[in-house]
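step=encode ok
step=design start
structure_in=
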């Protein structure tokens, strides 16, 4: 039977048995798009600035206009999938993401581009939570699911590096606009194939907590704005007011979740010490790693004067390392358990980021960037899959969409706030540079200062896992379960 003849919707039994490779490709393609678009625009920022006349501060919003709606609405996206159907919500999210990618690629002004990026983030927030839930529903527990999870985790780890490479190639060969327009054919293919091939998991009817979602999104956005504003204008003026407003909004969100009959973020998900430590460690890790996508291209282009293509290709060693190491991690996980792999991976990442903190005006790619990116590839390929499994292990099926949203909310919120905080560190370094300091040297020093802060984030993640997550004696026995989470947990 051909693919074209499969016209009726997939049943709850799924069609992964007939076309497992295609089903996995559809799910992974969505994950690749939403992960790549969080960081891919970084390499294109100089071209965007010259083409649309962005201010230096405004450039940070090209990244955060996407990440903040994505992070703030992920919980609502996960719950919407539970209520209305994860496949239906997945398709709707991909459709919105695809349409807004087209709008962004055609943007004639900064405001237009930022609005399109925000709509992309909304679409991603409704598509991404369903991706892992659909994977779990379409691949039976055991070797098939483990292989699918390994592929999914590899894409998550590779996303940043692949985004950098693709962005550099497209920006240099065509235009920065194609970094967005390339999503259109991929998104259309996902929208067409998903209803035909991908099974729909059972629904969990209930209400949507829209006020809670708005409070979370507004709180995160105001908090990020406060830090980015501080980088340009210092800590006076509106910055303290914004920090207080963000704290109030986020407190209201937590209060709402504690009282709602059907919360977006069931607080029972945080009752497990291992899971809570994993969530926080993931947030700190993303706060550190997202800054690679901003500051490494900045160093390569502004200090070493690389083209967009060369800056993108500079991430190739990291991408290859993540790919190779992720495949080995899948085989080591049942033997070693998650804890040593997570700890080892985070140590490698901390060494890599710490190395980048030593960048200065005299640093070269070979000595200052290549080795750290290789270490980061080793670290990400080692820790990401076990940490995801640690967080998702044992999630009840009725909390699948919520757990998916919570995990990705911590990831994206950590990334967005990490960028905002470390832009503040970078801006402070530039403001305190001596007047006669060459621009390239001042930029390199500011980037090094930002990576010092990023190293601190990774050390916090390492401390959390070392002190609280999975005592060593339990780790080996839990390894297989962590690799293949029970129920319908998602990421």
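sequence_out=
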């Amino acid at each position: 039977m051909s693919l074209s003849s499969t016209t009726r919707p997939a049943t709850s039994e799924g069609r992964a048995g007939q076309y497992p490779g295609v089903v996995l490709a559809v799910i992974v393609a969505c994950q690749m798009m939403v992960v790549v678009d969080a960081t891919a625009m970084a390499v294109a920022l100089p071209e965007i600035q010259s083409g649309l006349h962005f201010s230096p501060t405004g450039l940070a919003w090209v990244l955060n206009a996407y990440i903040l709606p994505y992070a703030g609405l992920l919980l609502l996206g996960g719950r919407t999938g539970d209520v209305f159907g994860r496949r239906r919500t997945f398709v709707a999210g991909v459709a919105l993401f695809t349409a807004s990618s087209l709008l962004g690629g055609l943007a004639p002004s900064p405001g237009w581009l930022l609005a399109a990026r925000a709509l992309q983030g909304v679409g991603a927030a409704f598509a991404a939570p369903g991706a892992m839930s659909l994977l779990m529903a379409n691949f039976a527990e055991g070797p098939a699911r483990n292989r699918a999870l390994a592929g999914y985790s590899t894409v998550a780890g590779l996303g940043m590096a692949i985004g950098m490479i693709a962005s550099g190639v497209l920006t240099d060969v065509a235009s920065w606009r194609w970094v967005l327009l390339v999503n259109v054919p991929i998104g259309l293919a996902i929208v067409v194939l998903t209803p035909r091939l991908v099974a729909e998991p059972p629904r969990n009817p209930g209400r949507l907590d829209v006020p809670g979602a708005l409070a979370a999104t507004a709180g995160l956005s105001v908090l990020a704005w406060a830090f980015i504003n501080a980088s340009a204008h210092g800590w006076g003026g509106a910055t303290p007011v914004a920090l207080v407003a963000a704290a109030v909004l986020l407190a209201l969100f937590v209060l709402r979740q504690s009282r709602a009959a059907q919360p977006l973020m069931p607080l029972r998900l945080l009752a497990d010490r291992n899971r809570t430590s994993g969530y926080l460690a993931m947030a700190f890790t993303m706060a550190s790693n997202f800054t690679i996508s901003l500051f490494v291209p900045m160093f390569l282009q502004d200090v070493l004067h690389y083209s967009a293509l060369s800056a993108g290709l500079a991430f190739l060693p990291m991408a290859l390392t993540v790919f190779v190491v992720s495949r080995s991690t899948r085989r080591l996980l049942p033997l070693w358990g998650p804890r040593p792999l997570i700890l080892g991976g985070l140590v490698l990442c901390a060494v890599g980021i710490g190395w980048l903190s030593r960048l200065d005006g005299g640093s070269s790619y070979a000595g200052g960037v290549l080795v750290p990116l290789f270490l980061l590839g080793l670290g990400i390929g080692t820790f990401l899959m076990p940490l995801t499994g640690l967080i998702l292990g044992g999630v009840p099926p009725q909390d699948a969409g919520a757990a998916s949203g919570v995990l990705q909310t911590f990831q994206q919120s950590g990334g967005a706030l990490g960028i905002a905080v470390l832009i503040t560190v970078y801006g402070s370094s530039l403001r305190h540079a001596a007047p006669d300091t060459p621009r390239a040297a001042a930029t390199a020093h500011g980037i090094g200062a930002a990576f010092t802060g990023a190293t601190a984030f990774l050390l916090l993640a390492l401390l959390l896992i070392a002190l609280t997550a999975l005592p060593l004696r339990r780790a080996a026995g839990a390894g297989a379960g962590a690799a293949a989470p029970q129920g319908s947990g998602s990421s």
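step=design ok
step=annotate ok -> The longest helix spans residues 400-431.
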